């Protein structure tokens, strides 16, 4: 990555407003899918273990919303990239300390998404039908 002025802040912000909007849209899509899946599972009176399927769209939703909120893409972090500037393509991050900060932030977002999703999925699985 070149040493030019950038909106990228390691471990804090690695995406621009357009990318943030995409993450928020992914959250919306995941939420709609979650509602459809959950309503369907409840309407069909599925056993608790089949309701665990709701984990997948719920995780998509949680991940999308968390990435938008944090202005941070876990995919870019995993690839060692950033796309924080409006007028550029995604850029490779060469500095090891920057990549480490991004990796830690990505892990934190993934952990938060997992915990949120696990709690909601657990509650759905425990619903008496």
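Sequence proposed for the structure above (129 residues):
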């Amino acid at each position: 990555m070149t040493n030019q002025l950038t909106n990228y802040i390691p471990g804090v912000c690695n995406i621009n407003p357009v990318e943030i909007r995409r993450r928020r849209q992914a959250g919306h899509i995941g939420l709609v899918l979650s509602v459809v899946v959950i309503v369907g599972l409840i309407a069909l009176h599925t056993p608790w273990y089949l309701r665990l399927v709701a984990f997948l769209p719920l995780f998509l939703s949680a991940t999308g919303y968390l990435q938008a909120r944090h202005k941070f893409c876990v995919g870019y972090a995993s690839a060692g990239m950033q796309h924080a500037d409006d007028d550029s393509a995604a850029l490779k991050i060469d500095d090891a300390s920057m990549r480490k900060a991004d990796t830690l932030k990505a892990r934190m977002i993934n952990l938060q998404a997992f915990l949120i999703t696990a709690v909601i999925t657990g509650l759905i699985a425990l619903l008496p039908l």
